[in-house]
Amino acid sequence: LKGDELVKIILALPIIIGAFILTGCKSPSEVRQSGPEEIFHSNKNVNDVSECILSGWQEKSFLTGPVPVYIQPYKNGKTVYIDVYTWVADVIPDQDGKSKVIYFSQNARRSAEMKSVIKSCI
Question: Residues 56, 62, 64, 70: what is their CA dihedral angle, to the nearest 10 degrees?
C-alpha cells in the first residue's frame, strides 16, 4: 500500500466500524422486516434491472475504495445488496415481463444516491 492509501484506510476505520455497529450486520430477511423505503416499477425485465443496479452501485466508492456489491437469487427474481446489507434492492417479476424493485436502506446518509441508481435503471 502507498502512504496515501494507508492514511485513507486508517481515517476510514472509525466510519467502517461505526457502520457495522449501526447496521448490526443484519441478514437480508431482517432488513426486509423493517419494511421498504421505496418501491419502484419498471417496464424492463428482472435481469436487466438487477444487472444495471449491480453495475451502478459498483461504481460508487467510499473513503476505502469501491463499494462491495453482490447479487443473488431471491424468490423468482434477484437481490442486489451492499456488504453488511446497508442497502438492499429486491428485483422481482411484476406483470407481463415487467419488474418491481423493493428498496431497503439502513443508512439514510447515502440512500438518495443509491436510489438515483435504481431510478436510472428502471
Answer: -40
Residue with cell 427474481: 77
Instruction: Give CA angle at 85 (80, 87), nearest 5°.
Output: 65
Residue type, position 45, single letter = N
pTM of the entire predicted model: 0.77
Task: Kindly state the cell numbers that stand for 59.
Answer: 461504481
Answer for the pair 117, 100: CB distance below 8 angstroms, yes or no. no
Q: Do 83 and 71 touch, CB atoms closer than 8 A?
A: no
C-beta separation of 91 from 50 below 8 A: yes
Going residue by residue through the chain, which has 122 residues, state the pLDDT in tens, using 9 for 90 and above. Answer: 566 666 666 655 555 555 544 445 568 888 899 899 999 999 999 999 999 999 999 998 877 778 899 999 998 999 999 988 889 999 999 988 899 999 999 988 889 999 999 999 99
Q: How far apart are CA 19 and CA 23, in angstroms?
A: 6
